Amino acid sequence: MKTGIKSIIIGVCMAMVAAIPALGEELVLKGSTTVLPIAQKVAEAYMKLHPDIKISLSGGGSSNGIKAILDGTADIGNASRFIKPKEVKLATTKGIYPVPHRIALDCIVPVVHSQNTVTNLTTAQLKEIYLGKIKNWQEVGGKDMKIVVISRDTSSGTFEVWEHLIMNKERVVPSALTVPSNGGLVQAVASTPGAIGYIALGYLNQEVKALSVNSIPGTPETTRNGQYSISRPLFMFTNDWPRGTTADFLNYLLSTKGQTLVEEVGSITVY
């Protein structure tokens, strides 16, 4: 098992196959809602350069993106987490060789209602809130108001990173509200005065208020220099080394122009 994962990681360091896109081809991308805005932005620009190429995009979460690669229903599976050992094992039984391509960086930002007076929480406080042990904002320096815990669903790569980095694999309080997307979580927090949630940096807007973690704000700079602790790479997975339009699209995304588009949607470039 470890050998399988190691071979995939080594594969990331290898050069991507250069290719010329075929005429009239369709490219299908599925998965992470965190990666989706990047995919949409880059796909729009790519299709302008290649009018004969059609790109189909859908979300559904990181687990669904990787599943789409294993099932052969997508050319690219978007994921905001790395592939799991059990997914590698399943791929092996199907004769699939999932190859990860790191296309951006991201940090996960805790967000609250815009009128919430709290500005910072420690990782320990975040964990206690999501365990249901801290129940009122007054306990962390805020107003006397019940905390409404909002989380992502279990198919989300964002949830899995939060579960690993904040919860240390402990279970989120069962009473937490769950939403299937970053955008849905923003809407839920914006409409609930006592709410707290967590989103990918690219979804942060004026509707909600971002909290610092351990007195460090989540920004491109603090993510790149390692100061901000809740961060992760973003991936696109392919079955084996990409060829044709798939390779050309990924090469474009990783080019200077493509990384500029990554930055335009609020995500963090890889260089």
TrEMBL record:
Keywords: Phosphate transport, Signal, Transport. GO terms for molecular function: phosphate ion binding. CDD domains: PBP2_phosphate. Pfam families: PBP_like_2 (PF12849). Residues 25-256 form the PBP domain. It comes from the Bacteria. Gene3D superfamilies: Periplasmic binding protein-like II (3.40.190.10). The keyword Transport applies. InterPro entries: PBP_domain, Phos-bd, Phosphate_ABC_transporter. GO terms for biological process: phosphate ion transport. Belongs to the PstS family. PANTHER family: PERIPLASMIC PHOSPHATE BINDING COMPONENT OF PHOSPHATE ABC TRANSPORTER, PHOSPHATE-BINDING PROTEIN PSTS. Involved in the system for phosphate transport across the cytoplasmic membrane. This is Phosphate-binding protein. The gene is pstS3.
